DNA sequence: TATAATTAAATTGTATACAATTTAATTTGA
DNA sequence: TCAAATTAAATTGTATACAATTTAATTATA
């Protein structure tokens, strides 16, 4: 035990979080390659499949991403034909994102992905639920903070 | 409950992991700006402070990063004067990384960072320990898998 | 021992991330 | 009402990440 103990990698909570997130998303790659999606594109499509229609700001709030990340990514999804991007007539500052038919078809090809991935993270049901709750607890606290 | 329930964002374990890691590291920025370090540079320095001397491969194994990420990052840390990069005489394929005096001085300026950050993630001691253990359980499983 | 196989870093190319700024559109309030 | 403030996306610039390939050095083996 020395004065620098706090600075040891093994004493950080941030590092396993960082590494784990990175390794988990990396393991999605082979599954998502079949859908021609990256991980970030996949979570964008997940939100779009559920909401069908939303603007960039709403999408960003759900995913904790800003327009700097989303704008180029959405252009790629549009190019692939999975979403459409059109200006809102009532307020031209808003960009309306909608899933296309091709985007909806993709959903059927993606149904196996979550199960395949859950095989990869070998936790008990209880452990997974506790992890899930703890992570959302942190995220919700951050969200409150950001509102202030 | 429909056939697409598995594909809902809220039913994924990967997403809170991804978002949480991202938000936590983002919150390091103001603290690390004072040290002229990015988050990844910070965890590299943490490992270097502890080990004083190692090569790129060893560093990459500890941090789950490859040379494609580390090579340019280490060049920046060298440019800032925090580490030195020299070829190993016995095996010129290895690059020996060493903390410099300036790099060691930086350690003293960094001692507050972990405590400041832990204030940011408001979990009970028990919750934090459980989270830590679960994340390392996943990581260790991945490591085993990669060895095969 | 000369070539093949292996290994460690570096390089290349693509895709995020995000802070900070800019642009364009809308809303506010003096 | 009209300039100021605000808002939503887009843009700019910097820094990761990582797969795939290349380069250079070392080791293994026929």
Q: Number of DSSP helices of chain A?
A: 7
Task: Indicate the low-confidence ranges of chain A by residue numbers.
Answer: none
CATH architecture of the largest domain in chain A: Orthogonal Bundle
Structurally, how many domains make up the residues of chain A?
2
| Gyration radius from CA atoms of chain A, angstroms | 18 Å
CATH level-1 class of the largest domain in chain A: Mainly Alpha
Q: What portion of residues of chain A is helical? A: 55-70%
Under CATH, the homologous superfamily of the largest domain in chain A reads Winged helix-like DNA-binding domain superfamily/Winged helix DNA-binding domain
Give the neighbour order of strands across the main sheet of chain A.
1-3-2
Largest interface: A-B, 56 and 56 residues
SSE run of chain A: HHEHHEEHHH
Structural class of chain A: mainly alpha
């Amino acid at each position: 035990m020395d004065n620098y103990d706090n600075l040891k990698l093994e004493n950080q909570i941030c590092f396993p979080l960082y590494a784990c997130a990175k390794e988990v998303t990396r393991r999605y790659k082979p599954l998502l390659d079949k859908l021609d999606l990256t991980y970030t594109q996949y979570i964008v499509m997940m939100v779009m499949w559920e909401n069908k229609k939303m603007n960039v700001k709403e999408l960003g709030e759900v995913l904790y991403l800003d327009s700097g990340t989303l704008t180029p990514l959405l252009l790629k999804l549009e190019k692939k034909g999975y979403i459409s991007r059109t200006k809102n007539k009532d307020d031209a500052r808003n960009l309306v994102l909608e899933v296309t038919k091709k985007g909806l078809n993709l959903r059927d090809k993606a149904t196996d992905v979550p199960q395949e991935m859950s095989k990869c993270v070998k936790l008990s049901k209880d452990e997974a639920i506790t992890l899930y709750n703890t992570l959302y607890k942190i995220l919700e606290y951050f969200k409150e903070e950001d509102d202030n």
